[in-house]
Amino acid sequence: MKYIPNLFTLLNLFFGCIAVILVLQNGIAVMSFGDGTQYINMPERVCWASLFMGLAGLVDFFDGFVARLFKATSPMGKQLDSLADLVSFGVAPGMILYQLLRLSFAEQPDGLDVSVGWLLPALIFPCCAAYRLARFNIDETQVYGFKGMPAPAAGLLIASLPLIGWYATSEKVRALVTNRWVLYGLIVVVGWLMVSKLPLMALKFKDYGLRNNWPKVLLLVLAVLAAVFLKWLAVPVVFIFYIIVSLVAKEKTV
Q1: Distance CA 163, CA 215 (A)
Q2: 210, 217 in Cβ contact below 8 A?
Q3: What is the DSSP string of 73-115?
Q4: What is the value of pTM for the model shown?
Q5: Is beta strand 38-41 parallel, antiparallel or unpaired with respect to 145-147?
Q6: What pLDDT score was predicted for residue 52?
Q7: CA 56 from centroid of its chain's CA atoms
């Protein structure tokens, strides 16, 4: 029984690796026309990568519960969890950002010949995730709250971008997903949130009362409403709500 939680964690890593494969072998098509214009097609395979990251997030959410259920928490499990999270919510979203930046430049003439230096900022994201996870592993005070944005939350935000671009009915929304300046801004802001010590709440309930858990209940209600009305756009909206509610609630980490 003691190995079951670690198997959950490895399943998280397995899904994260599939996501990386789907992003790197995405089948992106570029069609050039005589007038110099180019048409870029982002295939559904990139969206499947996002969905596998979502499965990794679901498994990651439950592996701690399973560990407590079987009373099988261990230092090895904690390290294994962070290593899996680095792939699923650090490397995989970093590759998504890399490909979205490629798409952004490919939409302009001679964009496919862009210097790789313009794409490398995408790798800042996994570096920030690694730093965040390493700091979490040596900090014993982050029980009911976090210092900095958790890597899974940041990674799933990036994972939502291909889904938003694929299913959006507005051309303006689609354009934002592959806007290089929006992507650079996300890398800087979300990367900073991960390495910062901003006090953010964990989604663990202290008891069964509403008084001590109202921020989590409020966030849950907002998430459901956003999902109903905004579909995949709900992910970045809930991400912003999460930060605001955390700062208003100012919950202690222990």
Answers
A1: 28
A2: yes
A3: --HHHHHHHHHHHHIIIIIHHHHHHHHHHHHHHHTSTTGGG--
A4: 0.88
A5: unpaired
A6: 95
A7: 10
Provide the residue type at 213 as one letter. N
Per-residue pLDDT reduced to its tens digit, 71-98? 667 778 788 999 999 999 999 999 999 9
Q: What is the pLDDT at residue 33?
A: 52
Record the tokens describing residue 192, joined without a space. 């900073």
Q: Hey, where are the domains in the chain?
A: 4-134+154-197
Radius of gyration of the chain (CA): 19
Question: Quick one: which of 157, 165, 161 has its CA closest to 128?
Answer: 157
* Cβ–Cβ < 8 Å for 90, 151: yes
Paired sense of beta strands 29-32 and 38-41, if any: antiparallel
Residue 241: its pLDDT value, please? 93
Residue in this structure with the two tokens 């390495």, named with its chain if needed: 195
Query: In sequence order, what are the beta bridge partners of 32?
Result: 38
Sign of torsion over alpha carbons 65, 224, 216, 131 = positive
Name residues of the chain where pLDDT drops below 70: 1-2, 26-44, 67, 69-72, 109-112, 143-144, 204-210, 212, 251-254
- Orientation of helix 44-69 relative to helix 151-167, angle to 10°: 150
Which CA distances in Å does 168 have to 62, 105, 174, 176, 252? 30, 21, 6, 11, 38
What is d(CA 88, CA 65) in angstroms, rounded to the nearest whole number? Answer: 19
Burial class (CB in 10 A: 0-12, 13-18, 19+), 84: buried
